[in-house]
Amino acid sequence: MRVCLIYDCLFPWTVGGAERRMGHLAERLAQQGHDVTYLTRCQWPPDEPPQLPGVRVIAVSRDEPLYGADGNRTIGEPLRFGAGVLRHLLAHGREYDVVHTASFPYFSMLAAGAARRRGGYRLIADWHEVWSASYWRRYVGGPQGRVAHAIQRTCARLPHTAFTFSRLHAERLTDEGLRSEPRIIWEEWADDARMALASADGPRAADTRVEATTVPRSPSVVFAGRLITEKQAPRAVEAIVLAARQVSGLTGTIFGDGPERALVDATIERLDARDVVVAPGFVEPEILQAAMRDALCLLAPSRREGYGLVVIEAAALGVPIVLAAGPDNAATELVDAGVNGVVSQSDDARALADAIVEVHARGARLRASTLAWHTAHLQRVAAQDPLREILAAYAGR
Fold first, then answer.
1. Rounded to whole angstroms, how far apart are CA atoms 104 and 99?
2. Is the dihedral of CA 332, 337, 342, 345 positive or negative?
3. Pairwise CA distance, residues 86 & 20, whole Å
4. 101 forms bridges with which residues in the sheet?
């Protein structure tokens, strides 16, 4: 099958769950013998083009920042990327049986919809998130928010097959006017090797699981994510400092980079917390993995999540997670309170700190139940077989 994947981000040049899902999907499709093209924006030096085995990577727009000084997505980049996608599909659309795009940042999906009559391909879209009208107004302001919401709704009403990754966003997509039933995939992305290591397959994996149920001698809290307003990294710093007053020796690490990096550093300085919290920025995956494995918990106080990949990654290592409840946070669907983590009913720093202290108090029993939760989750994913589900959609089933 000839497949065109579309997203303006490409892992590892841009880091995030959606990027990893799309890149992983491209490689899996290529491994199965499908002809795969990946349309994206340029994110690499001219003399160092991407090398994805079996995948043609085509840059249809220039290298430019995704985020402005205010921490929000810029408007120029998605417009230029959408125009590049339109040009490519008008010229080459007939070379594809399927065009599979991320719905956001919308103009690329509109382009794929506009070129479909000439191309004749089947259109598939990943809806990682569906924002409410009120959230759009908060994000970009009243008039602009109404326009953005109207564009989102137009995309939802295009004839296509829609994949979502949570019940929250499946319901919102239906409310936006999707003409078919959204298909929920219960695993957005998975590194097969790491998942196997974290499962009870073989002596090495079994040893890892035993170690994971032991509470770390030096308790640490890990935050990992892009430092944008929605992720609330400065709030994480405040919560860790407050929890450290109740848990002897507690420290924290803020992994990631982004528009709020300076605010994170300033918060550490303001609280005189250099001995408690460090913020090293982005690090090699092996370093992050080791830090997660040794953590007391993973703290993710994000106000907005489309899925919650970080929950799965933490649970695979037996590490409970602390989340904050909220109307736009679908990650809470993956946390059973007291089983694989704690969901704070507020994103207030004090409430988050109390949740960290609760994880510490629950000790090894919570780590053991987190591993058990992960095993059950993998069984659910295996029963669904996400790749099989995707290929069925490609075939029109």
1. 15
2. positive
3. 24
4. 6, 125
pLDDT in tens, 71-105: 778 889 999 999 999 999 999 999 999 999 999 99
Domains 2-190+383-394 and 192-381 share a fold: yes
pLDDT digits (tens, 9 = 90+) for 267-288: 999 999 999 999 999 898 889 9
392: how many CB neighbours lie within 10 A of its CB? 13
CA–CA separation, 141 and 377 (whole Å): 39
Cis-peptide, bond into residue 12, ω within 30° of zero: yes
Q: Where are the beta strands (DSSP E) in the chain?
A: 2-6, 35-41, 55-61, 98-102, 122-127, 161-164, 183-184, 220-224, 251-255, 277-281, 297-300, 304-305, 321-324, 328-329, 341-344
Give the residue extent of every domain in the chain: 2-190+383-394, 192-381
- Please state the pTM of the whole predicted model: 0.81
Q: State the Cα–Cα distance between residues 169 and 184, nearest whole angstrom.
A: 9
Domain 192-381 architecture: 3-Layer(aba) Sandwich (3.40)
3-state secondary structure of 91: helix
Q: What is the CATH number of domain 2-190+383-394?
A: 3.40.50.2000
